[in-house]
Amino acid sequence: MLDRRLVTALHVETLRHTELHAEHAPHVLFQASTIGALLDGAYDGDVTFAELAEHGDLGLGTLDALDGEMIALDGRFYRADVDGGIHPVDPVARTPFAVVVPFAPTVDGELSGPLDHDRFLALLDDFVPADATSCAVRVDGAFDLVRARSVPRQHPPYRPLAEVIADEHVFELREATGTVVGFRFPDFAEGLEVSGYHLHFISDDRTRGGHVLSCRPRQVRVRVDPSNDLHVELPPEVDLASTELARSTREALRRAESDA
Asked: For the chain, what is the radius of gyration of the CA atoms?
């Protein structure tokens, strides 16, 4: 079951695909499905990227059949393939999991490094207002290193994400300039979302990117869009009551999201 703190601290509104409507409200996060469903192997999406664009212009996620990592930036959607190459996403393509927001930052600042990944995340926390349950982040600039990954397209019958991650392709982008986009959710959102920071990277020349395992910023601009509202579209087979994660699944999620 959902943590009671999630219900009281983060306003969560759920809806089915037939209830979707165009919405571009500032500071409202929109999510297709749940991370718990994705971990269980629900890789067939029911929300198109055209529909996703009606709810936000910055975000991340994946594509049907877990076909790479998705990065949304300035209203454009990109796919990082298994080797980190970047491709535009067709508006009719669908997603089994994504989070977007009409990015309207209220915090703007700079960080100078070089910074290791843990220090970078700690300093990001300093930008987030104390009363914000969640937030979207955009970090632009120069990175000494971005260690990233993507995964190969899957085929039915789908394996759980923990097994797919064993086939992930990890690559390093050195002396890179580009943008990190992502979100921070509280610990009690786990199962519905990835708790902590979930970040993707795309280079300025739009040729390389992927899921960020770790990075070392050198000189970057940080913008933060705080939020206490999350609208979640639930595919027919997904129920919020099923978002509780077993310990083994939680550990798999940690391995999938970090460089550990």
From this structure: 17
Which of left, alpha, beta for 54 (phi over 0: left; psi -120 to 50: alpha)?
A: alpha
Q: Which two tokens stand for residue 166?
A: 């064993």
Question: What confidence tens digit (pLDDT) does each residue in 160-189 have?
Answer: 988 898 888 999 999 999 999 999 999 878
| Domains of the chain by residue range | 4-257
Q: Are 235 and 42 in contact (CB under 8 A)?
A: yes
Q: From the centroid of its chain, how far is CA 151?
A: 15
| Length of the chain (residues) | 260
pTM: 0.90
4-257, CATH topology level: 60s Ribosomal Protein L30; Chain: A; (3.30.1330)
Cβ atoms 43, 65 nearer than 8 A: yes
What letter represents residue 99's amino acid? V
122: left (phi over 0), alpha (psi -120 to 50) or beta: alpha
DSSP per-residue codes, 83-135: TSBEEEPPTT-EESSEEEE----SEEEEEES---HHHHHHHHHHHS-TT-SEE
